[in-house]
Specification:
This protein is α/β, with parallel strands linked by helices. It is built from 15 helices and 15 strands. It has two domains: 188 residues, Rossmann fold (3-Layer(aba) Sandwich), CATH 3.40.50.720; 166 residues, NAD(P)-binding Rossmann-like Domain (Rossmann fold). The strands form two sheets. Strands 3-2-1-4-5-6-14-15 form an eight-stranded mixed β-sheet, with helices on both faces. It has a seven-stranded mixed β-sheet with strand order 9-8-7-10-11-13-12, with helices on both faces. α6 crosses α7, α7 packs parallel to α8 and α11 packs across α12.
């Protein structure tokens, strides 16, 4: 199979779909790897390294898309890339279609088979391809929040660690998944007073096992969320429903009751965000102020550390890239239920139920639209 690695064009995105070692593994399996010139530059992977790994460097993105049978990316295609997608091609990337109706329509029109990292759900409900980016985003969310809390950023002027005779800052985290647990670990390590909320007792138990009694856990309800939001110096929202829009857990009224200069970091923004009225922000302008509260919602947060993030992502995705390349998407999806759950769109139809609900369309069965799949 011919696998294409184009350069990411989303603003501020420094990651690349695969490290050179991943390209070498594909070449050893007998596949052709096309890498757009400069695709790895912002992650500090040179064209020379990709050539040494056996990849072919292609100057134009359009040629990568035209020749590749499978495109491996990091972020979802943007409008300039919509016309490059085609029928029979596999797209393997983060999609977040529940919050991207335009992309969903473009994929359907193109007839591309689109597999989303974020919906490849294991039997136990975990999301192994999303997990490494969630871990990084959770850790970075605390770093970002701590920075924005500084007075010269417009924040409250609170040091999360506190000081001699001064109590630490208060961090409230909504969601005890990978991102929430990672955020809690970093916030605790910085010396903050941390509370994690989730509706799932088993998720809260994992936080307790990992961090002990030093972190408070609460079962999420309207009342406990409102209380946690109001007392927070830093609020991190990291709730996720695979394939669906993020639940709106924080209302405008809750935000109005927060402390002046408090900070919200919405890690769930890729799926629409957990805060009412939140909008995506960028690395250049990471936060905006509403009701006296700083709102940060950078959609590609792990791209702040692109080399680390690219290595972690390739480690997670490479086994499935190889599986698709070796067997084709139909057979691979038939033999691997987790991969089948990752297919969002195939042959012009939405086949993932949660994505279909979010988009307001009727889902098709994978085995009906992808012969040999499902």
């Amino acid at each position: 199979m011919v696998i294409g690695i184009p350069r990411e064009i989303k603003e501020g995105e420094g990651r690349v779909g695969m490290v050179p070692a991943g390209a070498a593994a594909l070449r050893q399996a007998g596949h052709t790897v096309l890498v757009e010139a400069g695709a790895g530059r912002r992650s500090r992977f040179s064209d020379r390294e990709y050539r040494q790994a056996g990849a072919r460097i292609v100057r134009q993105a359009a040629e990568v898309w035209r020749r590749a049978e499978m495109i491996v990316k990091v972020k979802e295609p943007l409008p300039p890339e919509y016309g490059l997608m085609r029928r029979g091609q596999v797209l393997f990337t983060f999609l977040h279609l529940a919050a991207a109706r335009g992309l969903a329509k473009a994929l359907m029109a193109a007839g591309t088979t689109a597999v989303g990292y974020e919906t490849m759900e294991a039997q136990d409900g975990s999301l192994p391809l999303l997990a490494p980016m969630s871990e990084i985003a959770g850790k970075l969310s605390v770093q970002m929040g701590a920075h924005l809390l500084q007075a010269w950023c417009g924040g409250r002027g609170t040091l999360l660690a506190g000081a001699a005779g001064v109590p630490p800052g208060i961090v409230s985290i909504l969601g005890a998944g990978t991102a929430g647990r990672s955020a809690a670990a970093v916030a605790h390590g910085m010396g903050a007073r941390v509370t994690v909320l989730d509706v799932r007792q088993e998720a809260l138990d994992r936080v307790r096992r990992a961090l002990g009694d030093a972190v408070d856990v609460e079962v999420a309800s309207a009342a406990t969320i409102a209380s946690a939001v109001e007392r927070a110096d830093l609020l991190i929202t990291a709730a996720l429903v695979p394939g669906a829009r993020a639940p709106k857990l924080v209302t405008r009224e809750m935000v109005r009751r927060m402390k002046p200069g408090a900070v919200i970091v919405d890690v769930s923004i890729d799926q629409g965000g957990c805060v009412e009225g939140i909008r995506a922000t960028t690395p250049a302008e990471p936060a905006f102020v509403r009701s006296g509260v700083l709102h940060a919602a950078v959609t590609n947060l792990p791209s702040a550390v692109p080399r680390t993030a690219t290595k972690a992502l390739t480690s997670a995705t490479l086994p499935w890239v190889l599986k698709i390349a070796n067997h084709g998407i139909a057979r691979a999806a038939r033999e691997d239920a987790m991969l089948a759950r990752g297919v969002n769109v195939a042959a012009g139809r939405v086949v993932h139920e949660a994505v279909a609900r979010a988009l307001g369309v009727r889902p098709a069965r994978l085995e009906d639209v992808l012969p040999g799949g499902g």
